[in-house]
Amino acid sequence: MSTQDNGNPNINMAAEFQRKFELYFVSLIFTVLALSIQTSVFSEFGFQYRFEIGAWSLLIISGLSGLLRLEYVPVVLNKTGIIEIAEADRKIIGRSLRGEGSIKNQSGEEWAHEKKNESKENLEKFIANGKKENEKTDRRLLIQYNVQKWGFYFGLMLLAISRGLLQFQNMLK
Length: 173
Description:
Blueprint: H1 9-38, H2 48-97, H3 113-172
């Protein structure tokens, strides 16, 4: 996940659509859940209620998974931004070590070569650890998205089966 705004309008538009879609999807899940609970009717078919309650359960799991995703996406984006800043700082220090510029402290004195090396090593460790953490969080977000998506789809299927059984029962009367 990259947060860098490179000025490309297509990338910016895609990010905006993605944000809107994620909010819409979570809202849709909870709306379908609320409507299905409000309009529920249980029949004499002993197993129809199992489909209905199963649908509710999947929709709840799906919605909560979506909320968790919405909570963690900004965290990953923030960490990614911090890593990008650290990478830029590492490049500046690298150029300074090659003699292509200088780095000065607040009092105007140039950094010693040892301090530059130490800072570069610390930044490299920080960047590597940050990227590992982001990879783990990205995997978690992907799993949460799959739970959200498939929970919603299967919840809708169970709901359709439940409501279809009600219609089938009404036809038999």
